[in-house]
Amino acid sequence: MRPIPTHQSEAGEHPGMARxxxxxxxxxxxxxxxxxxxxxxxxxxxxxxDPAVAExxxxxxxxxxxxxxxxxxxxxxxxxxxxxxxxxxVAEELKRRGVPxxxxxxxxxxxxxxxxxxxxxxxxxxxxxKPLSAVPDPWECHTSWAEHFKAPLRAALAEMGCTMEEVDQxxxxxxGAYTEQVLHAIERRDVIESxxxxxxTKQAVPEDASAEEAAALxxxxxxxxxPTQTGDLARFPYKxxxxxxxxxxxxxxxxxxxxxxxxxxCDVCGDSHVTNVRTQPEGKLVWKVxxxxxxxxxxxxxxxxxxxxxxxxxxxxxxxxIVKLYGGRAPxxxxxxxxxxxxxxxxxxxKGGVPTAAxxxxxxxxxVLRWLYARRQPKQAxxxxxxxxxxxxxxxxxxxxxxxxNPAKRDAHVLAFERASTTSSAGTLPTPPVVVPFRTLSSxxxxxxxxxxxxxxxxxxxxxAHDSVADLEPRLGRAITWTHEFVPEEDRTTVxxxxxxxxxxxLGELERTWLHLFLEHLPxxxxxxxxxxxxxxxxxxxxxxxxxxxxxxxxPTDEVKADQKAFFRLLYRLLVDAERGxxxxxxxxxxxxxxxxxxxxxx
RNA sequence: GGGCCACUAGCUCAAUGGGCAGAGCAUCGGACUUUUAAUCCGCUGGUUCAGGGUUCGAGUCCCUGGUGGCCUACCA
Length: 603
Hints:
The protein is of the alpha/beta class. It has helices at 10-13, 15-18, 32-43, 53-59, 81-96, 145-159, 169-174, 179-187, 189-199, 211-223, 287-298, 307-310, 315-322, 345-351, 357-361, 366-374, 389-404, 412-421, 438-448, 452-461, 475-486, 501-505, 509-521, 533-547, 558-576, 584-600, and strands at residues 64-70, 101-107, 165-168, 238-240, 250-256, 261-266, 272-276, 283-285, 300-306, 332-336, 339-342, 382-385, 422-423, 427-428. The chain is built from 26 helices and 14 strands. It is elongated, with a radius of gyration of 32 Å. The two termini are 49 Å apart. The model is unreliable at 1-25, 203-228 and 345-352 (pLDDT under 50). The structure holds one RNA strand of 76 nucleotides.
């Protein structure tokens, strides 16, 4: 990884200020990030319209907290990435305004392992019910299940310039950081239960239950691995992990409010224990209490969540009320929709999973991936297409980059570009010093089989001056990867490694003449040592003219045009074993004289 | 039962707190020695799902309905 420049221009930090001197003061563009940041400031007690709000908050010692959280229970895919980037963008916007802000990331690795993804040894089902941080890594490369999935995301986020304060919930719980809050929840468990009950809208066995409902019910019963329990302990807001086996598969048997002794029997290993909630941090609050508890402890001002959390009766709605028990207030919230994936057929089948940020970064430059998440409203679902759409995506991105270079054209689109391109901690994220269209790089990579020298030469020949291949990174490597892994075989160009002797032997008189003339005149394009694309073009189109007794530069007759078509097809078959291919002059240039000779000369 | 999202050109989608409905692809036409897949330019193409309302002005806001999709209730 290359070091990232950390310069920050004053103008870049306060783009709004720079516009003041303009004679027609265009309003500062706004987008969902601006509004979410406004909300966060309001939540923290400031007035986002007040120019002095940053100084006021700073003077008051307020740090606006933007929180994200996720259970590292499996590969953290592109949908989950929205949790991080949504939070990140809002925190960045606050910092951009000079407001003290932090991005706090909670790893919910004290959550129980719920199910085993495909591809993992079925024997791992024995770990179901344990905290993610206590399950061994089936791939044996990390210290735990949780770490195995956290590590690659950390790396990807770092590459995307997304820095954050990380908190492991396992550590926090084990350190007793929440003990007071746990005890409080247990004391007020009747209130909690009444809140939860109020939001339980489940109808009391509808007499006209549709088949659909019945099926859904069956499903939920089938998935329910919880023991049934009755009475006060049935809805206990706290659940210990079994001291013997580490699973949360426990049935509570008694709780003493005086001593805070909690007794339980493990349904799996059968052992019974007593844990003291005050002195032995061996468990965690149930999710719907855990979340609001942390809002209050951490002073969260903004936190996004999947739309599933925002539905009535869901965790955010319920948490809004529960947090009051802690004297807190629910953070400002945006619900984000799901991110679809397309163009991954090959990879997802081979890797057996949904693509992650790291997967996407193999094809998309970091700012481009960020852009996908910045430019859409969170509640709008979108699709990351790593297939054919990638080319268009890069085209749009490059066009936007040109627009962004003109301050007069600053609008919401440009704002999204800026959010995608730079961060407060990483500065401007790496982009290629010499921007070559992605489609061009992909095509070149295809026919050159990834040879750096050839790529560099061709890019130069096509008019993109550059000092070395390094000037084409980080895009070139991604174009190579994309071409090899995401372009369908039938759309690719595979250069023959050996001459097609059978075909060469079966050629007719005219075809042999073409090939001889071709090989005779082609070297003239390399007369100066470096290839001349125009000259190659002349030769390629001129060969059929020569065969008809015309000169290279003559206008083609209808007869010649028909010959050209046949000649081209012949060359494609000999060079790339296909009926069609990239434009021949560039293809010939890409292959180089030696390769062309090797594949044709046997005629 | 409740909630959210979508519906715009043939296709995929834009339209940044109401202000002239736009791109890409496809089609078609043209230029570049070119009936080729790395270059350009241009033309076509619209009752913005339907109906009502607010407004000087609605794809955008409100109401009703339709179609499609997602989520939710028990648990984390």
